[in-house]
Amino acid sequence: MAPRGPLAAAFEGSLMSPQALTASALREWLQLAHAPGLSPAVLQALLDAFGSPAALLRASDPAIAAVSSPAAAQAVRASERDDLGARTDAARAWLDAPGNALVTLGDPAYPPRLRDLHDPPPLLYVKGRLDLLNARGLAVVGSRHATPQGLADATRFARELSDAGLSIVSGLALGIDGAAHRGGLDGRSGTIAVIATGADLVYPARHRALAHEIAAHGAIVSEWPLGTPARAAHFPQRNRLIAALAVGVLVVEAAPRSGSLITARLANELGRDVFAMPGSIHAPLAQGCHALIRDGAKLTAAPLDVLEEYGLGEPTAGAAGVASCSGNPGANTGDLQETEPAGCGAVAGTGRTDPAVPAAAPARIEAPPPPPPGNPSEQAVLAALGYGPVTYEWLAEHSGLSDDVLHRALLALELAGRVASLPGGRFARLDAAPTPPAHGMLHFPA
């Protein structure tokens, strides 16, 4: 039998392990799951009809055509390619590494939320904590070109949501995704990275260290064959898995034509909750979130705005939490390789039953915000900044300071971590705005 990546002992078998596959069964699944011309939706219908990959491969062309189409029968017949043996050997070698698992569509361990999709992936390559795929999770997504404030918000929200019992799902992209994973790792419930390459590759290369940490303490999930490089068309497909795995999606920052809005739209179509963080009306990366809010997404200004939707409320000290994810000695990260292909940019009713929700975890004690600076010129700069990126010219006009005084004040505030310099000669304050009261949930229209 093909060796399987074990579940960490810390989770005491609360979720069933994936079924072990014989060498022949592994070959059959690989043959069909990655067959050209055989989409996941068609393959699901054929497997429902014939019961197993082996039975499907034995079926006659007329029988297959009767269930689907002559084209599907032809695709099944042409699925045994010359490289199948090599791909099977590579998959078995990958499964030999501790922490690696292959979950098939027919496996009881297959994430039930993915079955809400009309085209659930036939195979899932998983590195790390398989249990997270069945835990209640929230997707946190946003721009790859996030502002410093957006990155800080994504990290803080993800950490507090993770502490309260929601694992964090995101796509390992630069910007908000990376910050969300960091917050999820720092919290108690962990994080899932859904990637658009093979599970043995890392894209973007700058997230190599982060990917290894997620593989060791969270989970990396891919539907693509091992060795698949990043391709632009894969990212929207990746987004559908992010939306499906989570009970809701929080968009932190997004331009009007952002891939994060694809994830939000897919989440809405699946009946998931959609949350969006507001920003300045002048900030380009707030426009996508404002559009979502206009369409019915819940305006989200504090983690509690999300937690109250799932009955988690304010995290309380001393409440039982999710088991720490650091106790997974079997997780292997050594077979992750970097891939950074040139010219490949990330494009960015259900009636579901959720597993038991972990009890709320202890809230982290946040350090109080730094006191307002005593220098009047620094106070004038912060007042002029507001809470959206502005230009130097705006600051000069609205602070009333001379150039030399304004330069000194900005430098002091940057050194103090109160202000960040952004591309394009803009500036933004990094301390959080006051939190408005929570509002009721607004769902997207059907």
TrEMBL record:
| InterPro entries found in the cross-reference section | DprA, DprA_WH, DrpA_SLOG, WH-like_DNA-bd_sf
Q: Which residues form the Smf/DprA SLOG domain?
A: 102-310
According to the lineage, what is the superkingdom? Bacteria
Q: Where is the DprA winged helix domain?
A: 366-425
Question: Known SUPFAM superfamilies for this protein?
Answer: MCP/YpsA-like
Q: Which Pfam families match?
A: DNA_processg_A, WHD_DprA
Query: Which family, according to the similarity comment?
Result: Belongs to the DprA/Smf family.
Report what the protein is called.
Answer: DNA-processing protein DprA
Species name: Burkholderia theae
